[in-house]
């Protein structure tokens, strides 16, 4: 519990997490407000309320990367490792704090976007959370944000430099996953297994079609079910974090 308290204090004693949280919520909820205010394709579905969740996800992942890279930048990680020589415990405590915070931001973004859609959309007859799929679309944003933060924390611990870690995260998510689909013959098959593409399947996949236009909703992505997609994304995040623990344990701070 002491390590958790220490990591919480270190995280909230800097400005970047506060700005990242505000930006993540502002982008997600703000873009959703624009979508809801201009929705004119019949009843707005629950999917429409969480369509902008990826914007906040990328900001939260930047926050998670900063949580470890700034410690390397200012040398505070050395004091932490001197106090806890095994190195694994403080990294696990940091992951617990950052992941929990990211999940809370995701829940706030998901339900905030959904609530704002209720206020701004003209027809809200399809916005009620009446099924397990509806709840997954909204509450699942918190789960994806938490797993994404763990993945970014692992990248940050491996790279140790803020610019490098942030560049890798954003270029991979925003560019590489789209470009890989252009590879002849095998691009589409590879793209279906890209982590952020699969994570979107968890949030957006298998919507309830009642009352929705026939062509509404995202296309089917990959062979995994929504929960299988989330398990796949979590497995990648955990693997990245475990690799970072091995590297942190072996190299000099």
From TrEMBL:
Signal peptide: none annotated. Keywords: Membrane, Transmembrane, Transmembrane helix. The chain crosses the membrane at residues 18-39, 45-68, 95-117, 137-159, 166-186, 230-248. Coiled coil: none annotated. This is ABC transporter permease. It comes from Saccharothrix coeruleofusca. The lineage of its organism: Bacteria, Bacillati, Actinomycetota, Actinomycetes, Pseudonocardiales.
